[in-house]
TrEMBL record:
EC numbers, comma separated: 6.1.1.15
Name of the featured protein: Proline--tRNA ligase
Organism (species): Candidatus Magasanikbacteria bacterium RIFCSPHIGHO2_01_FULL_33_34
Class of the enzyme per the UniProt entry, highest EC level: ligase
PROSITE patterns: AA_TRNA_LIGASE_II
Superkingdom: Bacteria
Length: 407
């Protein structure tokens, strides 16, 4: 991508109405734009990051047998009447349509997925099954001040699994934990699993995937002895419930959450299956959420310095930021050739080919945008047919022959 063609621009000004680091940096660097509190547009650079996160999530969900679908975001009220959740989900956006119809905007999809899967699953032979989608969710969050960490419209991957018995459910639940840890690791996040209360969903414990950072909204208690973690909301004692060890308190961001739903929703829809003996049995469900947009915000909260964002390679908008300081047509031609050969090799390059912008501004933009590797091509480096290679994270710089870099 030629930066001269990129319609977004960076900004030196910190947006006045944003208090969170992730929103300030992502807006200044031109990844997202704020429409209103908790609602953002994804611009070309930001959409590339979000798509990469979604694709990592997609791969790991497919790996554990998840089948991707896309369900409507607009839901009829009668489904919530069946589950009794119309007035229980406090963040539900509700609205009226033509002919006295009443709708909700999806904040989660149990009401839609359960009767959907019910149409296809009749016997034990149809189980187990898991389906997922990647879609925007809507929640009327009372506080939406944390940028991408807490949106009123935000992106979520939600998966739902269906099982014939507890053992089968547990087997899948454990597989999902591994897949989730893979996802966060691949996105450059060091997530831990914390136990949490299931709230209105279930009597059982649910599991949250948390990344420690001072800027997190959650409080996690970690046991120094048995190394288990628990969400503060359920911690009653100062001692670990498992082993009696001392607890340490830290702030964290919840990036994922998995729940055993038991037959809470299948019962509401009278969704059962026929076992081998032809007898109707309850269906057990699990649900599994990750917020790709929150993951993007969390990565920025954790990986930045005074100059800007530091993207992990796996989700960076581009892997190389090629900066040309060339002004003579012969030199510009060499910079263009380098860009062409890198892109033809499949390297994702953002090419700062802007002629009217000073070097200092280009470097500042590059640090702000945070692409892992910066290449500088200039009349100076071209004397040795070389480029300067700089690592965004470490700041380490080396001079490399163009022919060695391109190969
Ligand atoms: P929180 O406790 O932070 O409000 P939650 O427990 O209500 O979140 P879940 O229903 O478990 O959220 O949603 C699954 C995942 O979706 C969360 O782990 C998080 O990654 C993401 N998520 C939830 N709410 C938001 C939001 N308002 N903005 C961005 N991402 C969100
Ligand atoms: Mg949660």
């Amino acid at each position: 991508m030629r930066q001269s063609k990129l319609f977004t621009k960076t900004s030196k000004e910190t947006p006045k109405d944003e208090v969170s680091t992730n929103a300030q940096l992502l807006i200044r660097a031109g990844f997202v734009d704020k429409l209103m509190a908790g609602v953002y547009s994804y611009l070309p650079l930001g959409l590339r990051v979000l798509t990469k996160i979604q694709n990592i999530v997609r791969e790991e969900m497919n790996n554990i047998g998840g089948q991707e679908i896309l369900m409507p975001a607009l839901h009829p009220k009668d489904l919530y009447d069946k589950t009794g959740r119309w007035d229980k989900i406090d963040v539900l956006f509700k609205m009226e349509g033509v002919g006295d119809k009443i709708y909700a905007l999806g904040s989660t999809h149990e009401e839609v997925v359960t009767p959907l899967v019910q149409k296809f699953v009749k016997s034990h032979k149809d189980l187990p099954l898991s389906v997922y989608q990647i879609q925007d969710k809507f929640r009327n969050e009372p506080r939406a001040k944390s940028g991408l960490l807490r949106g009123r419209e935000f992106n979520m991957k939600d998966m739902y699994s269906f099982h014939k018995d507890e053992a089968d459910f547990l087997d899948y639940y454990e597989k999902s934990k591994v897949a989730y840890l893979n996802i966060f690791k691949r996105c450059g996040l060091d997530a831990i699993i914390a136990e949490a209360d299931g709230g209105s969903f279930t009597d059982k414990l649910t599991h949250e995937f948390q990344v420690f950072t001072e800027n997190g909204e959650d409080i996690i208690f970690s046991c120094n002895n048995c190394h288990t973690h628990r969400n503060a909301e359920i911690v009653k004692d100062k001692q670990c419930e498992t082993c009696g060890g001392d607890l340490e308190k830290n702030k964290a961001i919840e990036v994922g959450n998995i729940f055993p739903l038991e037959s809470r929703f299948s019962d509401s829809f009278k969704f059962t299956y026929l076992n081998k003996e032809g007898k109707a049995q309850p269906i057990l469900m699990g649900c599994y959420g990750i917020g790709p947009s929150r993951v993007m915000g969390a990565v920025v909260e954790i990986n930045h310095d005074d100059n800007g964002i530091i993207w992990p390679e796996s989700i960076a908008p581009y892997s190389v930021h090629l900066i040309s300081l060339c002004s003579e047509s012969g030199d510009i031609k060499k910079a263009d050739e380098l860009y062409d050969s890198l892109t033809s090799q499949g390297v994702e390059v953002l090419y700062d080919d802007r002629v009217e912008v000073r070097a200092g501004q280009k470097f500042a933009d590059s640090d702000l945008i945070g692409i892992p590797q910066r290449l500088v091509i200039s009349p100076k480096t071209l004397v040795g047919d070389s480029i300067e290679v700089r690592d965004r994270e470490t700041g380490e710089e080396t001079i490399v022959k163009i022919k060695d870099y391109v190969q």
